[in-house]
Fold:
Amino acid sequence: MTPDDFRLHGHTLIDWIADYLEGVEQYPVASQVQPGDIRASLPEHPPTAAEPFANVLADLDRVVMPGITHWQHPSFMAYFPGNSSYPAILGELAAAGLGVQGMSWVTSPACTEVETLMMDWMQELLGLPERFRSTSATGGGVIHGSASEATLASILAARWRVTGGDINHTGDTTRLVAYSTSQAHSGIEKGLRIAGIGTEHLRIVPHDASFAMLPAELERLVEADVAAGLTPFWVCCTRGTTSTMAFDPVAAVGAIAQRHGLWLHVDAAMSGIGALAPEFRWINDGLEFADSYCTNPHKWMGVNFDCDLFYTADRTALLGALSILPEYLRSAAAESGKAIDYRDWQIPLGRRFRALKLWFTIRAGGADDAIAMIRRHVALTQQLADWVATDDRFQIVAPHPLNLLCVRLKAGDSATDALIERANATGRALFTRTVIDGAVACRVSIGARTTDERHVRAAWELLKELAAG
Ligand SMILES: *Cc1c(COP(=O)(O)O)cnc(C)c1O
Structure:
């Protein structure tokens, strides 16, 4: 591909993306293909000679599009959102154009410094504690690919701290115990497995009727473990759980964590971004106790996946756990102590210039626009809850302070399961199933950038119509 070809095809591709996003409503929300269909429509063996780009683009339409589930569709109400925006897409493109690998400051100073500034901008926009700022005495932040990666980094930092900063990682980790509720993300169990703690050393703390952790139960478990000769080291509070968007009481848990020397990680992957709006700042309650915190602009701020903000108040522990310095990565800048090498703040060595898409989004999209979108999503969720409350076949099964509503049919589990399956099969909307206190429920997650009242109304009409049949 020549530079002139690149310009030509690049313009075509930008048009293709804009046409796609403006026309996304024409597609069924979920892909309708069967496993193996997509591969079967492509040649088994790779071509060796270049083909015209137009052929590739044609196959994007012919082969790839049928296999796409449309996360940017305004009727996508499954999982949690993964919304994008035009400025963020351009930020991704700029990062690809530069093609830098920003493992160290010296490998591209701007990649590090724009990222540090974006973490500080987000600390300010979200109203997070000062001790997470890069300019604070002991804290700072970094962009990770996902909240699961942030959870693992937090576990590793906590493990390093509790084993006395053992640089060789030879400390005894077999007695360490971690805590969360059953509602916390599965990434915790995975992180504990990877960190060698083992899932048998994860204690499930009972929760209350709103699915929030019971601090007194946490303390009881911690004391029992101490009495048994074990070492409680890490507790996760979730602000906005994946199943029902429940909020663990961070301040109460934080006081217990401090008393017993546990690292407190707060996972607000989905809901944390809501704190952009001042009236939702309660999401941050208790964060002054947190040793680490994460939230995802790639869920609710229009910043394309992947973009997770990971903050810590104890960068010494994080770097203690993750820094490694082979000879070929030494630099005068790093040794001066004036430059950050983000490879020491994350699991992999290499890293993309992810900060660009955040920078583009904040500047060319505007935080005000993101706040307006968040307010709209929350208001639509409350509107939907009002509609559901007027239909006595349905039941709302969990508190819904933000943009997730969990409903079920009073007729029971199999009726609710059948409803979700039939609604999703229409392609007119997409919902996710969950199980809450042993009962099946349908999650309605409102978070696509262009979701408006008519889409929520249509989704509700769909559920009502199919509930009747
Ligand atoms: C979505 C979510 C995660 C996982 O996020 P990824 O960035 O996709 O790994 C973790 N915790 C909570 C509470 C979530 O909502």
The two ends are 56 Å apart (CA to CA). Residues 80, 146-148, 185, 187, 238, 240-242, 267, 269-270, 296, 308 surround pyridoxal-5'-phosphate (CB under 6 Å). The longest helix spans residues 355-389.
